[in-house]
Amino acid sequence: MPLQFAADVSTAETDYGTVLLDQRSGRYWELNPTGTLVVKALLRGAEEKDAVEALVAEFEIEREQAARDVAALVETLRDSGLVTA
């Protein structure tokens, strides 16, 4: 399901991935390059399965591991209130 950052979330890309700032709580989150790839895909409107395929292609990991990683990241982002979907 496509994602959108909550209105109070700011982002900045770095050499190591993406930093998220939840302005409501003042908490920072750091996404590594794999997390950044997943989030960018989902923000563009891709489905989770498409993000899995992007991970497999870019990082040559097993599809099952990629699926678990994508699901875990999306769950964490939602549980933290950083995204809406």
UniProtKB/TrEMBL annotation:
Residues 49-76 form a coiled coil. This is Lasso peptide biosynthesis PqqD family chaperone. InterPro entries: PQQD (IPR008792), PqqD_sf (IPR041881). Keywords: Coiled coil. Gene3D superfamilies: Coenzyme PQQ synthesis protein D (PqqD). Pfam families: PqqD. It comes from Streptomyces xinghaiensis.
